[in-house]
Design brief:
Blueprint lengths: L1 H17 L3 H12 L4 H7 L9 H37 L18 H15 L3 E2 L5 E3 H4 L11 H4 L9 E3 L4 H9 L5 E10 L11 E11 L4 H16 L5 E8 L2 E10 L16 E10 L1 H6 L8 E8 H8 L7 H4 L2 H4 L3
Parallel strand pairs: 1-4
Antiparallel strand pairs: 2-3, 4-5, 5-9, 6-7, 7-8, 8-9
Helix pairs in contact: 1-2, 1-4, 2-4, 5-11
The structure holds zinc ion.
The site of zinc ion has 8 residues, from loops.
Length: 339
């Protein structure tokens, strides 16, 4: 009996070791440990064993059973691990395969131009400040020295929400709001959307963008204005760029001027781009009118300042040599892709 058990055990272990598949291990389990298995049949022949030897033989059968079960478990877990590893190898991601390309948009030419202007002025210590697009008439006109019935209101005719509330026609109200806070000195840039009741054509739109600047401090002179704007022009259009100032009139500045820059296409010799003049008109500027300072609670005998305003679209059109402003608003992908 003992020899028979030992033989069964050895044979089972040999078969387990030779198994290379989980199904085979299952077959072995059935063949040795199942209801009709070899070990079970040994137990069935127990009636032939002498009663005093039965506990000993029973113990031996149980030991053999435990041993075979243990080996089966061990072999199974090894095979399972191997199968998992092979599956992982098969499902590995090849990072060298070409990727699917996502179509990503990019910044609008207006925004590219705005970031460029902001970068230049922030580099000179300016702060970028924004304000409401729907504005009180008093901030948009009166506090900027444009009382009711002033002829300048015709040039800046805008959309009225009510008698006293308008869509702002310029970003200057942001300057007034900043001056009223009374924190001096001021060095600020006010970019944003503005509105005029204009018909749409190649150079006009009822909605466009302005970038205005304001500096208020003690002893600010026209020389500071010229130096600042000449530096701005050089940074934006190239180091060779020269500027000239032509006298002009704005209600909120005195004296006022318009600034031209030398044509960056021909360097000032005259070409089709600058219509032969060698100069390109770029912005309006001037020393802040004493009335405007007084209305915002700043003493014009102690403080002075300068202001300037430039159309964002004008900068974008010039910089990218676009000849029709409407292209900037139509959002035609074929156009926008070029920037
Ligand atoms: Zn030119």
């Amino acid at each position: 009996m003992k020899d028979q058990l030992e033989k069964i055990k050895q044979e089972a272990l040999r078969q387990i070791e030779a198994s290379d598949a989980l199904e085979k291990l299952n077959d072995i389990r059935v063949a040795y440990l199942g209801k009709k298995g070899e070990l079970t049949s040994v137990l069935k022949s127990m009636k032939d064993v002498a009663p005093e030897d039965r506990p000993k033989v029973g113990q031996m059968v149980n030991d053999a059973r435990t041993m075979i079960e243990g080996k089966l478990e061990e072999a199974m877990s090894i095979l399972q691990k191997k199968a998992r590893e092979e599956q992982l190898k098969k499902e590995v991601i090849d990072v060298t395969l070409p990727a699917k390309r996502n179509k990503v948009g990019h910044t609008h030419p207006n925004t590219i131009a705005l970031k460029e202007v902001e970068r230049i002025f922030v580099g000179m210590g300016y702060e970028v400040i924004e304000g409401p697009e729907v504005e009180y008439d008093s901030y948009n006109f009166e506090k900027l020295n444009i009382p009711k019935n002033h002829p300048a209101r015709d040039e800046q005719d805008t959309f009225y929400i009510s008698d006293n509330i308008v869509l702002r026609s310029q970003t200057s109200p942001v300057q007034v709001r900043t001056m009223e806070k009374g924190k001096l000195p001021i060095r600020m840039l006010a970019p944003g959307r503005v509105f005029r009741s204009d018909e749409v054509d190649a150079t006009h739109s009822p909605s466009f963008h302005q970038i205005e600047g304001l500096v208020i401090d003690k002893n600010i002179t026209f020389a500071d204005l010229k130096g600042t704007l000449a530096e701005f022009a050089r940074e934006l259009f190239g180091l060779e760029t020269k500027v000239k100032f032509r006298p002009h009139h704005f209600p909120f500045t005195e004296p006022s001027a318009e600034m031209d820059v030398t044509c960056f296409k021909c360097g000032g010799k005259g070409c089709r781009f600058c219509k032969g003049s060698g100069w390109i008109e770029i912005l309006g500027c001037g020393m802040v009118h004493p009335n405007v300072l007084t209305m915002s609670g700043i003493d014009p005998d102690e403080y002075s300042g300068f202001a300037f305003g430039v159309g964002l679209e004008r900068i974008a059109l010039l910089k990218y040599e676009i000849d029709d402003m409407r292209l900037l608003y139509e959002n035609d992908i074929r156009f926008l892709k070029q920037f």
